[in-house]
């Protein structure tokens, strides 16, 4: 996205023509006109820190107190009740969460997504990155970030299928998909990807698919330190590279064929060509 | 404010016949309440006692509860039959959903709950609460106190509790005004429910404050009530149904047109979803989510509020 400021827009012209004389005039002016101007702007998550997973403190108190109970009680009402009690509320207070168990799942997803940037951030200058994370290609960066995020599920992986089941309920699908898309975006962003073309969308969409399938694979992974998951992820990302080049090969083949066909028609004096 | 002397001037200048045609229902109700000779609207304004609405009629606040009591005394025995007929049985689904979403009952490692069901005379919600806590949470200790301003409705509930074999240690019935809840101590209730009752309360904010008083910190206020229907075309059909068919059915099935006329009028007068959510917030409870959840296009809604910790 680029910044396109239309300076000939009437409201902007009006703004430019008004001299700002005093601080009070400025504040009055901004309060009067600010909501009406909606310029397209660059969005970066570090400029607009995402609000916490839950807007009210009472809700997040219950949710954060419930997460430690997930390994033993799963993503369930029981875990919420224990969390509610730990936070000083009553068992019935879990009614404060309109989505019930799904709110707990989403809380986990959002906190881990926001935490990912604190763990690894490839946007930093190379010399600030730890040894072993320097001078990597983009696929490796993506793989490292994905693994780092997946490892945040490690301690609850035996309960993760419950979470997936809750996420796949009809009423929860839109929120789950949106959360997956945000995670995919966050991973590309932290990897330092700065594409401005249509691959912005395809990259995020394909990574989301790869991430979701790896996450599912991980629930059955018994290998030490989830090595099998790491290999699975590596293979999927390689497939993507192959698929990506296959798509571009097919595209150039079609482009050539269409042009050749058009030229043949032109040589036969077909109208419109 | 400035419009008031003007309107009063207009009213007093108008011939009394014209006045009656403008406010026929008010005139009709007051002719029986305050006597046929006094001009009704003049009387409302000059007397110091505040007025409230009873359906589309305007009555003194002190009279509303007796009028409501009259309505429910007359429908007590046929109450559930009529509900079934009018809502095609959907009110059962709403009540089931209401109770399931609250999920009452003791959790592993927790305490039994103390539930207060206000305006729950016939025990509809109370029985569901007990069933849910027993079947879903395996809890045979949670207790429900059913209160109602109307003893006839409570008798109906008590009769059913005995018929269906509910444990008398777990369910009790008591006449209580929702506005005061006098006999119920502060901070004593886990869950306060009021189902299709709050719109009959004369001073709703007072009832909400009483609910906050009796709830434990962290306790939940839950209300199931009729609300505003959207989208508009559906609302038009709904209004047609409620104003022409429901009173007729009341006449045919329960032999009581006026009570059901009151029912539909009181639904119409109840504030919209968001406004009632704001009233809950004003009473010092924390709205859950946006404050309410609509059922069946908003014909009914569930409002939830949580009493904050100090």
Automatic annotation (TrEMBL), chain A:
PANTHER family found in the cross-reference section: UBIQUINONE BIOSYNTHESIS PROTEIN COQ9, MITOCHONDRIAL
UniProt domain COQ9 C-terminal: residue ranges: 173-243
Keyword Transit peptide (UniProt): yes
Organism: Tuber melanosporum (strain Mel28)
Gene Ontology annotations of biological process type: ubiquinone biosynthetic process
Name of the protein in its database record: Ubiquinone biosynthesis protein
GO MF terms, alphabetically ordered: lipid binding
Metabolic or biological pathway, per its Swiss-Prot or TrEMBL entry: Cofactor biosynthesis; ubiquinone biosynthesis
TrEMBL record, chain B:
SUPFAM superfamilies per the UniProt record, alphabetical: S-adenosyl-L-methionine-dependent methyltransferases
Pfam families xref list: Ubie_methyltran
Keywords for the protein's UniProt record, in alphabetical order: Membrane, Methyltransferase, Mitochondrion, Mitochondrion inner membrane, S-adenosyl-L-methionine, Transferase, Ubiquinone biosynthesis
GO molecular function terms listed in the Swiss-Prot or TrEMBL record: 2-methoxy-6-polyprenyl-1,4-benzoquinol methyltransferase activity
InterPro entries, alphabetized: SAM-dependent_MTases_sf, UbiE/COQ5_MeTrFase, UbiE/COQ5_MeTrFase_CS
Domain of life: Eukaryota
Chain sites annotated for binding S-adenosyl-L-methionine: 122, 148, 177-178, 195
Compartmental location: Mitochondrion inner membrane
Keyword Phosphoprotein: no
Pathway recorded for this protein: Cofactor biosynthesis; ubiquinone biosynthesis
Reaction(s) this enzyme catalyzes, per UniProt: a 2-methoxy-6-(all-trans-polyprenyl)benzene-1,4-diol + S-adenosyl-L-methionine = a 5-methoxy-2-methyl-3-(all-trans-polyprenyl)benzene-1,4-diol + S-adenosyl-L-homocysteine + H(+)
Gene Ontology cellular-component annotations: extrinsic component of mitochondrial inner membrane; mitochondrial matrix
UniProt xrefs under Gene3D superfamilies: Vaccinia Virus protein VP39
Residues covered by region (Disordered): 27-50
Enzyme Commission (EC) number: 2.1.1.201
GO annotation terms (biological process): aerobic respiration; methylation
NCBIfam families per UniProt: MenG_MenH_UbiE
Subunit structure: Component of a multi-subunit COQ enzyme complex, composed of at least COQ3, COQ4, COQ5, COQ6, COQ7 and COQ9.
Family note: Belongs to the class I-like SAM-binding methyltransferase superfamily. MenG/UbiE family.
Function (record text): Methyltransferase required for the conversion of 2-polyprenyl-6-methoxy-1,4-benzoquinol (DDMQH2) to 2-polyprenyl-3-methyl-6-methoxy-1,4-benzoquinol (DMQH2).
Name of the protein described by the UniProt record: 2-methoxy-6-polyprenyl-1,4-benzoquinol methylase, mitochondrial
Source species: Tuber melanosporum (strain Mel28)
